[in-house]
Amino acid sequence: MFSKEEAAQLRKEFWTSFGKSFPRKWLLYNTKIKGFAFKFLADRKKAAVCLDIENPDELVNLLYYDQMLSLKVLLETELPEVIFDDSFELDNGKLIHRIYVPFEGKFSIHNKNTWRDCFEFFVETMPKFELFFYEYEDMIKNI
Questions:
Q1: Which residues contact 50 (CB under 8 A, 6 or more apart)?
Q2: Where is the DUF4268 domain (predicted)?
């Protein structure tokens, strides 16, 4: 299909295009909580907006994840399709706690025809996640 270089170039083009189409400063890693970060995910088969909890201290991870579980009903009000996964396996085999909203449409980072819908999903979903965080930040940090 694509060489490694071509695939890398497509990924770079995808993220550059997203940034240029929707210029905005996202919260992402600036939560001021170690190992607690919002992320955009896009690969060959799927896209999602994620909250990853991956502090080096597993006890801290569990506490933050439990705190988020206590707010689950409130988060589902804003994002009914949100998924809580207490043992999500990353490509490198590492297990983390991930709370995410998957993009339900057809998507592949290798297919430019699917990019626009994904960008719109990102721009519609991430602000809801961020707003939720800002609204309940004190409660989340209070572990």
A1: 38, 39, 40, 41, 98, 99, 100, 101
A2: 10-136
Burial code of 68-94, b = ≥16 C-beta within 10 A, e = fewer? beebeeebeeebeebebeeebeeeeee
pTM listed for this prediction: 0.93
Fill in the DSSP letter of residue 93. Answer: S
Taking the C-alpha atoms of residue 139 and residue 133, their distance in angstroms, rounded to an integer, is: 9
The H or E element containing residue 52 is strand 47-53
Neighbours of 121 (CB within 10 A): 20
Summarize pLDDT for 102-124 with one digit per residue, the tens: 999 999 999 999 999 999 999 99
